[in-house]
Amino acid sequence: MRLARFLAICSLTPARACTNIIVSRGASSDGSTIMAYNADDANTYGSLVHFPAADYEPGAMREVWDWDDAIYLGSIPEAPHTFNVVGNVNEHGLMIGESTFGGVHQLDGHGTGAILDYGSLMWITLQRARTAREAISTMDSLVQTYGYASDGESFTIADGTEAWLLEMIGKGKERGAVWVAMRVPDGFIGGTANQARIRTFPLDEPEQCLYSADIVSFAQRAGLYPAGAAAADFSFSDTFDPLTFSGARHGESRVWSVFQRATGGALDEYAAYARGEELWHRMPLFVRVARPLAVEEVMELMRTHAEGTWFDATDTAGEDVGAGAGHSPYRMRPLVWRWGGEAYVNERTVSTQQTAWAAVSQSRGWLPPPIRALLWWAPDDSGTAVRTPLYGGARAIPAAYGDVVGQVPGAGQPYGVGGDALHMDLRSAFWVYNLVAHMAYGERYAEAMPLIAAKVGEVQRRLLGAAAATDAAAARLLAADAHSAAAYDAITRFGVQTGQALVEEWRGFWMFLFARFRDGVTLGAPALPLCSRRGNYSGCACKLLPSVREVGYGSRWRARIAAETAARTRKANFRAEGRKVQLMAAKGRAGEAEVEEVGLADAHAGGGGGGAYASAAVLSFAAGVVCTLLVGWAGGKYSRHVARRRADADERKFHLVLDK
Predict the structure, then answer these.
(1) Which ranges does the record mark as transmembrane (predicted)?
(2) Positions of the chain with pLDDT lower than 50, given as ranges
């Protein structure tokens, strides 16, 4: 019964199991606030939202559609004027992200007649508020007026001055929601990952804490907090989202991983808590960073898979067969599975393959509003993605990142490319980024991921430099004219052209990876250059012949395969055939023989290694055979060679299948 209950709880995963980081001005290297937001949802098409600024006549209404379920919830009056919104930032430097925590089921707002789900709440607020405090007030007003149609959410909210964490949950069948918001202290960072984190909070410090007026009384009325208990002892998390093993292991462990890196390893004492063991020993809500973080360092935090920690699933210590031959941190879902009457878990890391988009944004309070918010955005897995820069004041977005339909009605772009969550379009950034990411999944992780990481770093540094130059140019124009059309055109053009070019570059990068890692081997640069002119054929080849490395498996996997499949896979007369292989290698007749010879050495040494490179001599020989046919020299020599190869055919048959 306990196992069944545990699995039932763990199966109630939120539709968007996201990870957020929020960085105060004093914790960033340039004095900006920074927000990182991975929107993790396997069935969402990762397209970029754009709501242009607009004016509305009195009586105009706005349709509200549930972001998760894509169903119509109702309509609310439009504001007279709405601001420009790109992704999760607006033209005034306001930024909002989220992570679902769910909470107690009786307060779920789905199907209650409420109109505002959490996704619409974010985007409507971005269209109506200029600052973080305005956003908090706007969100409260909206849900109290129109009802909250979701379950529990953590929102990260920041402007150019302040950074906040707001946690909200509905009232079930009652209209409205209860919430509390805590300001991130200067020099500190916060994080949230599918577990409510705010516990007790100050009741009379509005500079640091804001909350709904009935937060305690509602909890008492709902039977979730004792009627006679003190308001000062009230804990939002313990009341509305009691911590469970899964909340710690699959949620708080991500926050711990980020905090541990940002503090230089200062959170060792909370490792057992993050493992789901010491649930009573809760982590701090915010932590002071060891040193201020640059925006690219926050991007890097969002690319992590808990490497180097107890949660590291890459099999670096040789203790997790689930990593496969490629030593991958990724696992097939679900997160919780069972075998032999026991429940087991896969680790849930910051970077995950189910991400719809990954955003890191900055709000620079010293810059003019149109360029105050700089959004670094990418679709798909944050661990393999390079982020493109877009400004909050941009009047258009790259077509490759757009979507004709949109995340919700009104957020799409008529110029967006085709494709959706089930139909591929190679013009779409979402699909191109997926192609690159999938090259790193499974058995290719150990080889492909370092190449992807290096490429991401190279391109990201280039884009950071380009954005800095655009900042400076646009700031000069806006200093002369706050409404400079040239400035708006410049930042829009920069975002569109950069994004489009990046998708082209990323498509080419996928083609490079695919060509390199195909057909069970790894291909590299050819041993011989192409012949450049007729008549000079020394040390060159008439066509491209890449080097080929047979990847094979490490010693642990060889041992498992040998133990589990010996009846089918063990070769008879292994040593006798090995001598023939070595003889053939000495005669220089077969590249396959050299591969097998190395395999023999591994076997005699007790394992290790994983295949061998074909030698330059073998490739030179193969290229020479082809070229003799084309240019007609040494015909007799070629005939004798063919006859000799035919005589050896029976002995070599099993070797040929190694490469064929």
Answers:
(1) 612-636
(2) 1-15, 583-660
Rounded Cα gap, residues 87 and 392, in angstroms: 8
Euclidean distance between CA atoms 654 and 573, whole angstroms: 13
d(CA 264, CA 134): 34
| CB 68 within 8 Å of CB 107 | no
Read off the amino acid at residue 1. Answer: M
> What span, in angstroms and rounded, lies between the C-alpha atoms of 287 and 267?
9
pLDDT in tens, 385-434: 999 999 999 999 999 999 999 998 888 899 999 899 999 999 999 999 99
Cα distance between residue 104 and residue 126, in whole Å: 28
Both tokens of 374, joined, read 């700089």
Neighbours of 565 (CB within 10 A): 10
Cis peptide before 334 (omega within 30 of 0): yes
Contacts of residues 310-313 at CB distance under 8 Å and 24 or more positions apart, as own/partner, are 310/271, 310/275, 311/253, 311/257, 311/274, 311/275, 311/347, 311/349, 313/346, 313/347, 313/349
**For residue 143, which phi and psi values (nearest 5 degrees)?**
-75, -30
| Residue for token pair 């946690």 | 167
- Residues 552, 602: Cα–Cα separation, whole Å: 12
pLDDT at 534: 77
625 φ, ψ (degrees, to nearest 5): -60, -45
The candidate with the shortest Cα–Cα distance to 361, out of 79, 22, 74, is 22
Q: Are 246 and 336 in contact (CB under 8 A)?
A: yes
Q: Which residue, among 559, 547, 322, 341, has the nearest Cα to 445 in the 3D structure?
A: 322
d(CA 333, CA 400): 29
Parallel, antiparallel or unpaired: strands 61-65 and 373-379: unpaired
CA–CA distances in Å: residue 405 to residues 247, 408, 419: 34, 7, 10
Give the SS3 label for residue 501.
helix
Q: Collect contacts of 556-565 with beta carbons under 8 A, ≥24 apart.
A: 556/318, 556/321, 557/325, 558/602, 558/607, 559/607, 560/321
Nearest to 44 by CA among 516, 449, 406: 406
- Euclidean distance between CA atoms 96 and 39, whole angstroms: 12
pLDDT for the residue numbered 553: 83
CA distance 294 to 300: 10
Which secondary structure element, helix H or strand E, spans residue 62, and what is its range? strand 61-65
Residue 544 and residue 531: Cα distance in Å, rounded?
Answer: 10
3-class secondary structure for 233-268?
HCCHHHHHCCCCHHHHHHHHHHHHHHHHHHCCCCCH
The rounded distance, in Å, linking the Cα atoms of 86 and 21 is: 19
CA distance 260 to 194: 18
What pLDDT, on the 0 to 100 scale, is given for residue 317? 60
Indicate the pTM of the whole model. 0.86
| CA dihedral (495, 501, 507, 510) positive or negative | negative
HEC per residue, 532-570: CCCCCCCCCECCCCEEEEECCCCHHHHHHHHHHHHHHHC
Q: Which DSSP letter does residue 163 get?
A: E
Compute the distance between CA of residue 456 and CA of residue 376 in angstroms, rounded to an integer: 13
Given this model, what pLDDT does residue 394 score?
99
Half-sphere exposure of 48 (CA within 13 A, CB side): 36
